[in-house]
Amino acid sequence: MGLLPLKSDIVFRMVFGDYRYVGIIRAFLLAALDIPTDEYESLEIIDPHLERDRPEDKLGILDVRVRLKNGKLISIEVQMRKTPFMPERVAFSTGRNLSRQIVSGQSYGQIEKVITVVIANYNMIKGDEWYHHKFKLYDAEHGVLFTDIMEIHTLELGKLPDDGDSLGGKERELLNWLRLIRSERKEEIEMLATKTPEMEMAVGRLKQLSADERARMLYEARELALMDEMARIEAAAVEGRAEGRAEGRAEGKAEIAKRMLDSNFDLETVSKISGLSLEEIESLRD
Question: Rounded mean pLDDT of 75-100?
Answer without folding.
Answer: 87
